[in-house]
Amino acid sequence: MNSLGEKPEVEEEVLSTASEKVNVAEKKVEKRKTEVTKTDKEDDHVEEEQHGDKVLVMPGDIIGTTEEFEAGANTYNVRGDIHSLATGFVMVNNKRRMISVKPTTSMPPTIKKGDILIGTVVNVRDSMALVQIEGIKGVVDRQFIKPGIAAIHVSNVKESYVKEMSKEFAVADVVKAKVINLENMRMTTSGNELGVMVSTCANCGSTLKKDDQVLKCPECGRTESRKISSDYGTGII
């Protein structure tokens, strides 16, 4: 018969054995998870095949419907039709019933909220300036999706009050602005780095030079007011 002093040792042995069994079980579960994940990835790789004949699709082409497939990489869905977002070849994952496009070239960048854009002022109104978008900071040497017109509202020019938009921008000014609203393509030039980068004299057409807080024409001496970027005239984007 075991003495009273031996019971704790027996209990410790039982607990130790149980703990070891739990650890072994947990390791088996983790191993199984890893194997399943690896198998899924291998299956995805194997089952993603070219869809039909090798036909090059272009952005906007319909490549399937949501009744047949789930929209995958480089695609978008419009009223049940799946369109290509890139120039490339259609690929299908038969296991997941997912259709995608494998681009033949790297995808052009798209405009996102917070992006810094470079553009040219095409119209100045009482309440806003309209800007033709020319590029995105960091990728200005590449074509991007859906270039167009963006607006800088009078309330988004700078932190201080703006009385006249014509004192802040002029047609043909090159500006640097930040996207604050994608739906309405609204931008802001509030901040030292943002604003007019290059401007020309309204009198003689010469490029204006920065002279303290105003711009001055080196040819005719005319001075003009703008919402000037701290990078004005430097070529730094």
From TrEMBL:
**Where found, per UniProt?**
Cytoplasm
Q: Which domain of life is it from?
A: Archaea
Per the record, which residues fall in region Disordered? 1-50
Does Secreted appear among the keywords? Answer: no
Q: In what residue span(s) does the S1 motif domain sit? A: 114-192
Which residues of the sequence carry a binding annotation for Zn(2+)? 201, 204, 217, 220
- Under the GO molecular function aspect, what terms does this record hold? nucleic acid binding; zinc ion binding
Question: What InterPro entries would the database entry show?
Answer: Csl4, Exosome_cplx_N_dom, Exosome_Csl4_arc, NA-bd_OB-fold, S1_domain
What does the protein in this record do? Answer: Non-catalytic component of the exosome, which is a complex involved in RNA degradation. Increases the RNA binding and the efficiency of RNA degradation. Helpful for the interaction of the exosome with A-poor RNAs.
- Assembly description: Component of the archaeal exosome complex. Forms a trimer of Rrp4 and/or Csl4 subunits. The trimer associates with an hexameric ring-like arrangement composed of 3 Rrp41-Rrp42 heterodimers. Interacts with DnaG.
UniProt similarity note? Belongs to the CSL4 family.
Q: What is this protein called?
A: Exosome complex component Csl4
Species, as recorded: Methanococcoides burtonii (strain DSM 6242 / NBRC 107633 / OCM 468 / ACE-M)
Encoding gene per record:
csl4
